[in-house]
Amino acid sequence: MKELVEILAKALVDHPEQVEVNEVVGEQSIILELKVAQDDMGKVIGKQGRIAKAIRTVVKAAAIKEEKRVVVEII
């Protein structure tokens, strides 16, 4: 999951070297914290959050295959 979010984010931003994904494993879910450069924040979120929602949808679909619950946070 972590690699999937990283690949998607690096494809969207101007500064792919500043993309960081931290994985926090909880009891029932996995939280993926996505950090990007301040300039690239709008590109990852998109108009009205459409790109962020699309990233979350793709990750959620991949998580269902592995029977896990994954939350993507953009910080």
From TrEMBL:
<dbReference type="GO" id="GO:0008360">
    <property type="term" value="P:regulation of cell shape"/>
</dbReference>
<protein>
    <recommendedName>
        <fullName>RNA-binding protein KhpA</fullName>
    </recommendedName>
</protein>
<dbReference type="GO" id="GO:0071555">
    <property type="term" value="P:cell wall organization"/>
</dbReference>
<dbReference type="InterPro" id="IPR015946">
    <property type="entry name" value="KH_dom-like_a/b"/>
</dbReference>
<dbReference type="GO" id="GO:0005737">
    <property type="term" value="C:cytoplasm"/>
</dbReference>
<keyword id="KW-0963">Cytoplasm</keyword>
<keyword id="KW-0961">Cell wall biogenesis/degradation</keyword>
<dbReference type="InterPro" id="IPR020627">
    <property type="entry name" value="KhpA"/>
</dbReference>
<dbReference type="InterPro" id="IPR009019">
    <property type="entry name" value="KH_sf_prok-type"/>
</dbReference>
<keyword id="KW-0694">RNA-binding</keyword>
<comment type="function">
    <text>A probable RNA chaperone. Forms a complex with KhpB which binds to cellular RNA and controls its expression. Plays a role in peptidoglycan (PG) homeostasis and cell length regulation.</text>
</comment>
<dbReference type="GO" id="GO:0009252">
    <property type="term" value="P:peptidoglycan biosynthetic process"/>
</dbReference>
<comment type="subunit">
    <text>Forms a complex with KhpB.</text>
</comment>
<keyword id="KW-0133">Cell shape</keyword>
<dbReference type="Pfam" id="PF13083">
    <property type="entry name" value="KH_KhpA-B"/>
</dbReference>
<dbReference type="GO" id="GO:0003723">
    <property type="term" value="F:RNA binding"/>
</dbReference>
<comment type="similarity">
    <text>Belongs to the KhpA RNA-binding protein family.</text>
</comment>
<keyword id="KW-0143">Chaperone</keyword>
